[in-house]
Design a protein that fits this description.
This protein has 364 residues and is an alpha+beta fold. The chain is 34% helix and 19% strand. It has helices at residues 2-32, 35-39, 45-52, 58-76, 81-95, 118-129, 160-176, 218-227, 252-256, and strands at residues 109-113, 134-135, 143-144, 149-158, 209-215, 246-249, 272-280, 284-287, 308-311, 324-327, 333-343, 349-351, 354-356. Strands 1-4-11-7-5 form a five-stranded antiparallel beta sheet, with helices on both faces. The chain is globular. The relative contact order is 0.14.
């Protein structure tokens, strides 16, 4: 009789458990169908976004995110506050270290991260922590104080076409740079850690992958995330000091300047957007003087073109106030995330005669 009761109970529970088993099997098969995705870290929000963009798999990303959050909390719950913060930051850098290869059926999608997500926290810290004072005008000696930014949301961009283009260029650079690439100490804080493998396939060389900033108007942001960066349009709104290239900044406050245009100024406290871009800098050239006619990086010692250019600051003998990077190949840049933010307070302009409020600097 007890066995019969157990059998009847199993028959009642079976229909309820079957969908869960089927969902588990479906999720496992999808992970195994793509080696690069299977090797991606479970906390990688872009990998989750790629999987979430496959028709019929919207629930997978959410479930995986919750599981990863539980594991993260369990692993680091015993640590002290500072140790936990450091561990969280390290884990966040590791989560974005590799651009995952999108599954075959992945579609374009913009995936919003929870404010408490470790990658969202990292990107927010990068934006707020890289803000510096800027000149009030191109020829002005007066400085606007560093802006105080309030982050509203972080969106991960999952664009399979651009991701595959980036992977292809990375493979090409690895072939050409057999011994790796020279590091750029001035960009060390924005350099992505090397996970030791090239997208899960073989031992990986250092290709100087960095996270950098790019500011543009709202419509341009959407176009970039869907169609990629176009170096041919670089400098349209601000001149081409280093030629036809995509211009990226090491300071979010520099990119903030380009979030509106002289013909379309945004209200001082309006929500703005900038892009955190993943860039393959490869072997990069240090520029200390303008090269307005450039259409590619200069040649290296072997007579072959280098892979990118970075402009050093005036304090080190360069030509710009704040370090910037020029990339001449659209395949070397991937729009990683969109940061929506606003200026949290009115700032003062530091003038020779003292500090005073200046409406021309409210946007900074």
């Amino acid at each position: 009789q007890q066995q019969q009761q157990r059998n009847r109970k199993a028959m009642v529970l079976a229909p309820q458990q079957a969908p869960q088993c089927q969902e588990h099997d479906r999720r496992q098969k999808q992970r195994e169908s793509n080696n690069c995705w299977a090797s991606a870290l479970p906390t990688d929000p872009l990998a989750e976004a790629f999987i979430g963009s496959i028709p019929g798999t919207d629930s997978i990303a959410a479930n995986d995110s919750e599981e990863a959050g539980d594991v993260f909390a369990d692993n680091f719950g015993h640590m002290q506050v500072q140790e936990r913060k450091q561990a969280a930051q390290t884990a966040a850098w590791a989560a974005v270290a590799v651009l995952p290869c999108p599954p075959q059926r992945a579609e374009f999608i913009i995936h919003r991260l929870p404010a408490t997500d470790q990658v969202a926290v990292l990107f927010s810290q990068l934006v707020k922590g890289t803000c510096l004072p800027h000149r009030r005008g191109p020829s002005s000696k007066d400085l606007c104080p560093a802006p105080q930014l309030q982050i509203h949301q972080v969106d991960i961009v999952a664009n399979p076409c651009l991701a595959r283009l980036y992977h292809s260029r990375a493979d090409e650079l690895e072939t050409h740079r057999n011994n790796g690439c020279s590091t750029i100490p001035e960009l060390a804080r924005l350099k992505l850690p090397s996970p030791g493998t090239s997208y899960g396939r073989w031992p990986r060389r250092d290709l100087n992958e960095h996270l950098l900033f790019h500011g543009a108007s709202g419509s341009a942001i959407e176009d970039i995330c869907r169609n990629g960066f176009d170096p041919r349009r670089g400098g349209e709104s601000s001149g081409r000091l280093f030629g036809l290239a995509t211009y990226l900044a090491a300071n979010a406050s520099k990119s903030d300047i380009y979030t509106d245009t002289p013909d379309n100024r945004l209200p001082k406290h309006d929500v703005r957007r900038l892009i955190i871009a993943r860039a393959l800098l490869g072997e990069s050239h240090r520029a200390v003087a303008p090269t307005r006619s450039a259409t590619r990086p200069p040649d290296g010692s072997n007579g072959q073109p280098l892979d990118s250019v970075w402009a050093d600051v005036r304090a080190r003998g360069g030509a710009v106030d704040h370090l910037e990077v020029m990339v001449y190949d659209r395949a070397q840049i991937y729009p990683e995330a969109i940061i929506s933010y606003s200026h949290s307070q009115i700032v003062l302009v530091l003038c020779a005669g003292g500090a005073q409020a200046d409406s021309r600097c409210l946007r900074w």
